[in-house]
Automatic annotation (TrEMBL):
Family recorded in the similarity comment: Belongs to the diphosphomevalonate decarboxylase family.
Mvd1 C-terminal domain mapped to chain residues: 196-356
Pathway where it operates: Isoprenoid biosynthesis; isopentenyl diphosphate biosynthesis via mevalonate pathway; isopentenyl diphosphate from (R)-mevalonate: step 3/3
UniProt xrefs under PANTHER family: DIPHOSPHOMEVALONATE DECARBOXYLASE
Record-listed E.C. numbers: 4.1.1.33
Protein name, entry field: Diphosphomevalonate decarboxylase
Domain Diphosphomevalonate decarboxylase-like N-terminal: 11-182
Gene Ontology MF annotations: ATP binding; diphosphomevalonate decarboxylase activity
Species in which this protein is naturally found: Paxillus rubicundulus Ve08.2h10
GO cellular component: cytosol
Keywords associated with the record: ATP-binding, Lipid biosynthesis, Lipid metabolism, Lyase, Nucleotide-binding, Steroid biosynthesis, Steroid metabolism, Sterol biosynthesis, Sterol metabolism
Catalytically driven reaction(s): (R)-5-diphosphomevalonate + ATP = isopentenyl diphosphate + ADP + phosphate + CO2
Listed InterPro entries: GHMP_kinase_C_sf (IPR036554), Mev_decarb (IPR005935), Mev_diP_decarb (IPR029765), MVD-like_N (IPR053859), Mvd1_C (IPR041431), Ribosomal_Su5_D2-typ_SF (IPR020568), Ribsml_uS5_D2-typ_fold_subgr (IPR014721)
One GO term (biological process): isopentenyl diphosphate biosynthetic process, mevalonate pathway
Length: 356
């Protein structure tokens, strides 16, 4: 048997508070605005990827959840694999003692421990795990920041999954994308009281993909220019809120940015509707929950956010999570949800959404 090289890595999903929506370069995946997300830390939503290089392999091959997938020349998968292979070649060129296996074909197996079609960000965790596993396979000296530049070219949001905690993706200005990378704003332990409750409203595959939807927005929405103008201020304000652990400010900005993203989706021609009636009812519940607190002279207690689908993510301090779950159970029959669980922070409330 020939000598082979193999490595496994895993990466979690991240959920944006300031949304990435729009590319200024579709090939390099350079965004029209910076974004900021929270990487979920529990084990429910992860991609795990094993990469193997073997002289006996005749072509690069990938299996996603056990199914063979196509690696199109010039496509996102081959862009990431080629970039990592080139980095290995550089290591081999620089060090005559380095093992020479950069020219071996690779076989890659990737698994999500959640339904790929669940409308949750599987491309983010998927490309982050892919790039990370190849970096281990090729024993590259690359930093997470360097890897984020490559993962970004697989799927924009994937660059943020290479870091834990609160993560910013800087839009950058360089035409080659060399300054469009992710970096950690604060580790999870800096605000360990922060929890995320994920309400899987629907696990249908979404109608309009993020990639197609955001491009259509860039081309047709007039409201989009206004969104681009307000995002930099939001990035500064939410970063400050995270550093101060000011949930009220964090919540206000997160909800505004989710609404602004869905507004530009609606302003797209033809319009894109990602939210459904259950999503809108969740917005109403969280708004009312916050209003009661604000009217009593208190602060916001929860923040909703929605990506390119109807599923809600509710951020809240740990002490409010129980109340929020009870409220959701009160207003919705259990069948409204496929699954609901908290992922950021230590407490797992999955399975408690049962009436009775
Ligand atoms: C609404 O990263 O999936 O989740 O770069 O085309 O692969 P591509 O898009 P993708 O878009 C994610 C959009 C979003 C917002 C976000 O995660 O910031």
């Amino acid at each position: 048997m020939s000598k082979y090289f193999q490595a496994t890595a895993s990466a979690p999903v991240n959920i944006a508070c300031i949304k990435y929506w729009g590319k200024r370069d579709t090939k390099l995946i350079l965004p029209t605005n910076s974004s900021l997300s929270v990487t979920l830390s529990q084990d429910h939503l992860r991609s795990t990827t094993t990469s193997r290089a073997d002289p006996s392999f005749t072509e690069d091959t990938i299996w996603l959840n056990g199914k063979l997938d196509e690696i199109k020349p010039g496509g996102r998968l081959s862009t990431c694999i080629d970039a990592m292979r080139r980095a290995r070649e550089e290591v081999e060129d620089a060090d005559p003692k380095a093992e020479k296996f950069s020219q071996c074909k690779v076989h890659i197996c990737s698994y999500n421990n959640f339904p790929t079609a669940a409308g949750l960000a599987s491309s983010a965790s998927g490309f982050a795990a892919l790039v990370y596993s190849l970096a281990k396979l090729y024993q590259l000296p690359a930093s997470p920041k360097d890897l984020s530049i490559i993962a970004r070219q697989g799927s924009g949001s994937a660059c943020r999954s290479l870091f834990g905690g609160f993560v910013a993706w800087r839009e950058g200005t360089a035409p080659d994308g060399s300054d469009s990378f992710a970096e950690q704003v604060a580790p999870e332990i800096a605000w360990s009281d922060m929890h995320a409750l994920i309400c899987v409203v629907s696990d249908d595959k979404k109608g309009t993909s993020s990639t197609a939807g955001m491009q259509r927005t860039v081309e047709t929405s007039t409201l989009f220019e206004q969104r681009k103008a307000v995002v930099p201020g939001r990035m500064r304000a939410i970063t400050e809120a995270i550093h101060k652990r000011d949930f009220d400010q964090f919540a206000e900005i997160t909800m505004k940015d989710s609404n602004s993203f869905h507004a530009v989706a609606l302003d797209t021609d033809p319009p894109i509707f990602y939210l459904n009636d259950v999503s809108r009812a969740i917005i109403a519940i969280v708004t009312e929950y916050n209003r009661v607190s604000l009217d009593a002279g208190g602060k916001r207690k929860a923040a909703y956010t929605f990506d390119a689908g109807p599923n809600a993510v509710i951020y809240a301090p740990k002490e409010n999570i129980k109340e929020i779950v009870e409220m959701i159970v009160e207003y919705f029959p259990q069948e409204s949800f496929k699954d609901t669980f908290a992922l950021f922070g230590k407490e797992d409330v999955r399975g408690r959404l049962v009436r009775g």
